[in-house]
Amino acid sequence: MKRNRLSDQNISYKNSLAIIAHPRGGSTWMGELMMNIPDSVLIDEPLWRGKLRSSNSKPKSGEGKIDAIDKLGFYYNQPIPVSESWPEAKIEFEKILTGKVSSLNIYRENNFQSLKSSNYFITKFCYAHLLLKWLLQNFQLNAILLTRHPCAVVSSQLTHPAWKNLRINKPLKFPNFLHDELYKELEIRIPNLATKEEFLAAIWALGIKETIYSNYNDLNWITVAYENLVINFKFEINRIFKRLNIKVPDSIWQYQYKPSGSSSGKSITDIREGNLINSWKRELSEIEITRIMKIVEKFEIDVYSTSDEPNYKILYKDQY
Fold first, then answer.
1. Phi then psi for 184, rounded to 5 degrees?
2. How far is Cα of residue 16 from the mean position of the Cα atoms in its chain?
3. How far is residue 261 CA from its own chain's centroid?
4. d(Cα 27, Cα 264) in Å, to the nearest integer?
């Protein structure tokens, strides 16, 4: 493949923005919102390693969007300790964040005619919670951490084809891979997971515990609650762009009620009827909600409960 034209451009990390969210957590909408920044380009899920088949499975060789990530042996949700020196990984992230990866798979949501003139890089990560602190330790870039209620995330995952054939090993077991310590601790913490919703809730909780409950939260990155973005759109947009030190694009306001590119028919109906943030209460059974929240409680996560909205005093450092 020919070298990507984007790699010829002189782009600094000051012009790089990382969006971190769980899969089905609102990242597509956030990416579309941020693409209203003039001359921006979206890099779409460069760490994706294919569909998760079982809790004990590794990504298959050749699956994913970037060959180098495959060769590094990245897991689906790869952890990297904040103090870890991993030169090979750092080299690949430098390429990702500055558009030097020659893979059209990660630029699929862009108008290719505009790629060569772009000078602001937005990288959408759905599998980066466990390496976010390392990423910001090594690269001086802006980042948005988008959080969403665990029941909403899990409910959406349960109905999505990507998780349809997921199998849960009993007792819980993960494969061995580099920097797998967090997952080995998970095997001890909750060995008797029995259902798909419990497993997905545990993966959500692991990411939240490593980010929201760290000293970095809403300081080294901008934490945004999906629920508040829906309810108080203008407030959150102004807050984000003030932190980014970028003028709010006039075109962004039309995206408040516009379904994202990944929205399903059910989600589109909820958006139009104003029922988006609590649709999980209708989609999940009472026992499923109880199972999810019990897992969340095992991680001592109190930012979310069965209420529609999170505890903003825990999430945000600058407003509540």
1. -65, -35
2. 16
3. 16
4. 14
For 280, the token pair is 């999980």
Q: What is the mean pLDDT of the chain?
A: 89
2: which DSSP letter?
A: P
**Given CA atoms 7, 66, 207, 25 in this order, what sign does their dihedral have?**
positive
Starting at the earlier edge strand, list the strands of the sheet with 40-44: 40-44, 120-125, 16-20, 142-147, 222-225
Residues 118 and 274: their CA atoms lie apart, in Å, by 35
Question: Under DSSP, is residue 44 helix (H, G, I), strand (E, B) or coil?
Answer: strand
DSSP, collapsed to helix, strand or coil, labels residue 289 as: helix
What topology is assigned to 5-315 in CATH?
Rossmann fold (3.40.50)
How confident is the model at residue 287, as a pLDDT? Answer: 98
- Biggest CA pair distance of the chain: 54
Residue ranges in 15-149 assigned as alpha helix (H): 27-34, 67-71, 87-97, 112-115, 132-138
Question: What is the signed CA dihedral for 251, 255, 256, 258, rounded to 10 degrees?
Answer: 150
pLDDT score, position 79? 98
Residues in the chain: 320
Strands (E), 171-261: 222-225
Distance CA 153, CA 20 (A): 14
Regarding pTM above 0.85, the answer is yes
- How far is residue 89's CA from residue 128's CA, in Å, rounded to a whole number? 13
